[in-house]
Amino acid sequence: MPRWGMVIDLDKCFACQSCTVACRMENNTPVAGPDQTARGRAILWNEVLPFIEGEYPKVHVQLIPRPCQMCDNPPCIHVCPVKATYKTDEGIILVDYKRCIGCRFCAVACPYQVRYFNWYVPEWPAALKAHLNPDPEVQPRPRGVIEKCTFCIQRLRKAREKAEAEGRPFTATDYVPACVQTCTGHARYFGDLDDPNSLVHQLAHSPRAFRLLEEMGTQPKVYYLKQG
Amino acid sequence: MDRTHRESDLERTVLGPLRKTSMQFWLVIAVLGGLVLMGAVLLGRQWTTGLGVTGLKRPIYWGVYISNFVFFIGISHAGTLISAILRVTQAEWRRPITRIAEAITFFALILGALQLWIDLGRPDRILFLFFFGRFQSPLLWDVTCVTLYLLSSTLYLYLPMIPDLARLRDRMTDAPRWRRRIYTVMAAGWHGSHEQHRRLERGISIMAVLIIPIAVSVHTVVSWIFGMTMQPMWHSTILGPYFVVGAIFSGIAMLFIFMTIVRRAWHLERWIKAKQYDYLGILLLVMSAFWGYFTLSEYLTTGYSSLINEVQVLLAKIQGEYAPWFCAMVFCNLILPFAILIRRKGRTPTGAFIVAVGVAIGMWIERYTIIAPSLTRPALMARFAIYTPTFTEVGLTIASLALFALLFLLFFKLFPAISVWEVEEGQAVAAARQKAEELLRQGQLEPTLPTP
Fold this sequence. Notes:
Chain A has helices spanning 18-27, 33-38, 75-79, 105-109, 126-129, 153-165, 178-182, 199-204; strands spanning 4-9, 47-53, 60-66, 85-87, 93-95, 116-117, 146-147, 188-192, 209-210, 222-225. By secondary structure, chain A is an alpha+beta fold.
């Protein structure tokens, strides 16, 4: 069974935000508008975070693209009172939108802030609404529940179905999330962390590899390759 | 009890407000009712449009509502815990104030649970907590403990009311039918026999002991919904006892507030006396000192370290945007009580009332400054966030306080605010003791120790 993981090479990322946009189109996250976005209400399953270090004239901006870290020891799941969020056998953390009661405990517990809340009924401008992803798995979420990055779980299902239809075994390279597929600088790698021959496995063991807030013991499955 | 019974002073004063209602009372009820109505409208709007009407945002997912939840659960410790401890230690002065304390607990718990419901994104799914509850989640610990506490404090409020309910059944013969029915049913056939008294006392004693660990557990698990996460300044072992101390502290303050209001409005000055204010004032001072000690331990330990995530939350509180809140909290919880209550002359109803209002405000601020600053400065955040509560949140807080007061006042329009039979029992005990002392002094009684 694969253990899906991602590696992001910060040397190659130039913060073009195409991952953020591809994610939105693939997963139907609503448009919050400039007003609500300024109030911290935007839903961005993938976000490029600018960390500004130092002060003028010695300023360094570290840009970190941040999907869900898909922790192997996820704090969000420990605290959910109704089992609305769970980890699949392949290590992907999902939310059951029909079960979630909207208490936001998981969002408070997640040290990476990857969880987003539907403050209102999701909305799109008419032009965008006509182009929503029709996949039933990414149907717009109802008001009042939590949603988050799923590593494009719908793409995994489609890849499996496709392999079956073509009468060949499914392999880990058949499936990538939208952010990985679209990445302009080829900075993102995706695959099975448990397969010693996979690129992600090898990169995750590179001396440049690190994970966010590793000291918290969350054991994320998203690795970063240090810049410079 | 026979019909020719002549009412004692105590009965007359205590039952008086149940018989006659002044215009002022209805005016107060109308104002409170209006505020509750405003809250209902605001809540209706929140339920139809979404939690977007609040000032909450990412990453400040919890704010005023959760502060209110902790605050109300905190003041619920007024009653039951204080009354139980005083009962177990047989403090005689408790007698006239236990009923008020226990009623505060009951209504504060209902209001506390209501805050959690208001905070939910999907209030229609509240019952999922019972259908699909996961005991690994600290939130379910809260649901369990609060439910248990509500059930046991309802029983603990009801049991000592039974003899008084029987008295109401027998005396309030001119009351409307529905009220007499309530009294009859709730009195549960009490006729004051020796056996009934023995059983009642036994029941009350058991409940008084049982309720102390339950009350402690409730506020401990309330703190653990924060303590079990890894957010800076939440993930601390001190949080459990700190919250329990804060709960008892704010509980005593709430008891002071309501006991002074009832004493004044129901004319109970002869029964709730200087002694109650004096002793309870000392208890409040002790809790204030405890609270100060815990606060110092928590903040000094954090401040002395160089853990950047923790320190930046601390700085937000002592010199950042939360500094005014922090200063107000220290003033209300530490400086004000010591300034007024340290001298015996300060422990008067007026002095105690002023301090109690201060402590109630201070403890709300304490809850708020524990919850909000940590969330504005999480460990991984490119920029700090700022949280400003909206009118909806403030309005619902006011409405909740109004509903709390409304339920409390209506309750004591229907039931006596002082436990008549317990005060009578106290009078009998005091009289017997006085008589024994007199006999001793006259040498007619041998001072002997009870044989083991």
